[in-house]
Amino acid sequence: MKGKLALTVGQRPEGKAVLQVEGSVDSFTFKQFEAVFRWFSEQGIRYLVVDMPLLTYISSSGLSLLIKAKTDCAAKQGDLVLVRPQTPILNILKIMGLMDLFRVASSVEEALLPLSAFD
What we know:
This protein is an alpha/beta fold. The protein has helices spanning about 30-40, 60-75, 85-95, 110; strands spanning about 5-10, 15-25, 45-60, 80-85, 105.
């Protein structure tokens, strides 16, 4: 499904949002992916849940954008949490040493729980 990307945004109270990603983040769809993150920043979203069980591919540019968004959220005392990435994407995160950077949740509900709930 390269070249196709569907993004669905659900805003929650208190500066939170859920982004559902379906398809592929590649050279054809990167601008669309980047635009939604720019919008989140402009809206002051500080806690972002990226629901990605239907994301089939993500380019290095897409991963770089996730890292930047994570950094931006952290600067606002927030977080960016990944939900249900497919095994190939998880493997890329592991190979690149990014598993320590991102919290990975098994559901949107779990991702919306504060980090203190896991202590």
